Amino acid sequence: MYIKTQGKAGTLRNLICLRKFLVNTDETMTATKFMPLIDVELRSAWPNEAQDFTPWLFENIDFLSEAVGMSLEAREKEKNIQNLFADIVAEDSLSGELVLIENQLESSDEKHLGQIMSYLAGIDAKRVIWVASNFRDPHRSAIRWLNEHTREEYSFFAVRVRAVQIGESPLAPIFEVVEKPNEWERSLREAGVAASELTILRTRFWETYSKKYPDTVGLSRGSTVWVPMFPDKSIVLSLNVGKNFCGMFLRGNLGADNQELIQFFAPHDELLSEHFGENSRAARGVHYGSWRGIALQDEAKWDELIEWMEAKRKEYLEVFSEIEPPSNLSD
Question: Quick check: 251 and 236 in contact, CB under 8 A?
Fold first, then answer.
């Protein structure tokens, strides 16, 4: 609002108009109501850690991805590792690294810290995310010590989980990183350049594959494309393209129990091994894999790689035509 007037009378009128404007603005502003952000007891959101929180985090892992700066894809939950059960095993789709996620709805404790150390001895994961409602100082110090004294390829995170609400709004999750590796943001920026280039290559590769065999694979920006072996998708063939090698392997659908998969494959081991070699990486959830030492960056060999992958895919399907679908694989 601007009124151009002259003299004292004009100045007075300007002041009166300004006062009216400020009063009206104040009334408008006071009409907007603001409510405080309230922390809610975590058990109100997820009554049971194993039955409620772990499955929810498995299906909504993007919340955690954004907090830690990774592109996480949940792979398995309650994974059996040396008679202990890791809450979630995920994969960072940009780097291809396995990520171990251990969560609890209470404050951090020695039990979960010890379990993390045990899991690392039994799984090929170099990144660990420990989620808890709060972290005690000794446990924050332990995570800090691990980041400072383990090899550079290992990364440890302590992440606080909160459930919040405004008024009567739905609950919202918040993940706050309280401990992380030194120079993590800088490494993310540096890795982001290489990762974005790798993502572009992967996208172009799958586009090339899809143009040649449109009924086989869809478009993807990630390292893997899944091809179901059975109509119920209980077992899938994971086609994988990586920096140094490419190939495929059998695995369960998201959340499948790996021990149940091993039991299912056991009666068919002779048939599967005859075609695809020994099931040597079964403990890691990678079953009967076939690999070629062709790097994704070697674009001159893409046609050769696609033809090999397509022939192998058909071989897997042909072998599985002789196998009855499982009836008891849990999700």
Answer: yes
Q: Are 114 and 130 in contact (CB under 8 A)?
A: no
Q: Kindly indicate the confidence band of residue 70, based on its pLDDT and cuts at 50, 70 and 90.
A: confident
Supply 294's token pair.
């062709």
**Lookup: tokens for 314:** 């058909």
Distances, alpha carbon 182 to alpha carbons 43, 82, 179, in Å: 33, 31, 9
What is each CA distance from 55 to 74, 75, 76, 87, 135, in whole angstroms? Answer: 10, 12, 10, 9, 22
> What digits encode the pLDDT tens for the residues 100-125?
999 999 999 999 998 888 887 777 78
Strand bridging mode 84-92 / 127-132: unpaired
Distance CA 88, CA 83 (A): 15
Q: Name the burial class of residue 41, with classes exposed (0-12), middle (13-18) and buried (19+) by CB atoms within 10 angstroms of its CB.
A: exposed
* pTM score: 0.52
**Domain topology for 42-182:** Trna Endonuclease; Chain: A, domain 1 (3.40.1350)
Instruction: Write down the domain spans for the chain.
Output: 42-182, 192-320
CA distance 70 to 40: 27
Q: CA 216, CA 251: separation in Å to the nearest integer?
A: 18
